Every structure is written in C-alpha cells, then in structure tokens.
Amino acid sequence: MNSRVLDPGVTDSARHRGPSRRALARSAVWSIPVISAVAAAPAFALSPCPAGTVSGSIPSSSFDRITITNGGPGSIAAGTTITWTIQNVRSSSATLTLGTVTGVSLSSGTNPISLASGASTTWTFVTTVAIPVGGAVWWNFSIAGWTYNSSVSMENCIKGCVSDRGSTIGSVCPTAPAVLATPTTTQLKGAGFTRTP
Questions:
Q1: pLDDT band at residue 9, thresholds of 50, 70 and 90?
Q2: Which of 82, 80, 78 is CA-nearest to residue 67?
Q3: What is the 8-class DSSP label of residue 8?
Q4: Rounded CA gap, 55 and 150, in Å?
Q5: Distance set, CA 26 to CA 19, 20, 35 (Å)
Q6: Where are the extended beta strands (E) located within the chain?
Q7: pLDDT tens digits, residue range 133-143?
Q8: Cα angle value 56/124/178 (rounded, 5°)
Q9: Residue 38 phi, psi dihedral angles, 5° rounding
Q10: Please, which residues bridge with residue 63 across strands?
Q11: Which of the four pLDDT bands, split at 50, 70 and 90, describes residue 185?
C-alpha cells in the first residue's frame, strides 16, 4: 500500500508535468503591471537636494549682501523659494531695507520695515532664473546699526546663517523666541492698509 497522500483532483500525469501553461500565463499577466510600475518610478522620484553655500559679505559701506551659490549636482530651477529671517540684535530699533537683487525677486515681506530691538521678520524670495552649478543669486540690504542675526533656507536644502556686528560678518542664527516685527501705521498706510484699534 502506498503511504503518500495524493490530491484526488490531480492526475498522475499532471503531478509530473509541473505548472500548466494556463497557470504560467496567469502569473505573467499579473506581474507585467508591477514590473511596469517599478520601471516608471524613477521618472517620478524627487530630485535630491542641491548642495550649496550661503554666505554674507560687506561689498559697500552702504549695504550687506547675502549670496547663495549652487554646488550641484545639477542646476536649480527658476521659481525655487528662498526664505530669509533676520533679527535685529542691537539695543534700539532698526529699519531694514532691501536693495538691488540678482536672480531673485521678493515675493513676500514688508520692505522697508522697522524692527524693534530683538524683533525679526521673514522675507520670501523666488529665483527668477535657473542657477547653474557654480552660479549664484544674491540680494543687497541695509539695516540701521549693522547688528543682526539671520538664517537663509532654499527649500530646506541649502541652509546657512549670516550675522553682522557692525563690520564683521559671522554665522550666528536668530535666537528664539524672536519678537515678530509689526509694520508701523505709516508703512501700513503706504501699502493701502489702515490700523484699527
């Protein structure tokens, strides 16, 4: 007597042949969409963050400059967002004014704005050109007293801090908690707004 238990629905010839052509075809049909989806995934993958640097300089006695340089591996697209937060760290108020720009435009933020001691404001820029590897964008600005801490972030990829203590550029970030700047009544009226109590 045979001690093996056999499936009564499978014939002896089927046990020795392996999978049927129909079973193989059914498996192949289901695997094709999976293979296609995996092959297409790299086209939709997010590109890696570019490398780069944020630097500050004093090109003139009348303004400081923030520069972002693209370190690659590829160009940075036009329309990329840059966020800049600046904090007045002198003992009295200071007016912040944007000067000339290259490769960016100010998309949000009050310009000019008066910052109380310890207060900060955030300006958002958008790149107006693609930045090739090795290329740079920058903006000039003035702030009374030249005593500030600031942080720059290009879409959370390229980040850095720039500070000034009158004539020395450093890399001190704004301290928290920062007091947010409030536009003056004159600034609001100039922008078409009025302040209500």
A1: low
A2: 82
A3: T
A4: 11
A5: 11, 10, 15
A6: 51-60, 63-72, 81-88, 94-102, 104-108, 113-115, 119-127, 136-143, 147-154, 158-165, 169-170, 179-180
A7: 999 999 999 99
A8: 75
A9: -65, -40
A10: 60
A11: low
Helices and strands of the chain, counted as H and E runs: 3, 12
In the structure encoding, which two tokens stand for residue 125, read together? 């820029």
Question: Which residues, at least 6 apart from 15, have a Cβ–Cβ distance to it below 8 Å?
Answer: 6
Tokens matching residue 64: 């400081």
Nearest to 83 by CA among 150, 173, 179: 150
The radius of gyration of the chain's CA atoms, rounded to the nearest angstrom, is 31
Name the DSSP letter for residue 182.
-
Residue 90 tokens read as 């002198």
pLDDT tens-digit series, residues 33-68: 444 333 333 332 356 788 999 999 999 999 999 999
Q: Please name the residues in contact with 63: beta carbons below 8 A apart, sequence gap of 6 or more.
A: 99, 140, 141, 142
- Paired tokens of 136: 């740079």
List phi, psi (to 5°) of 193: -110, 155
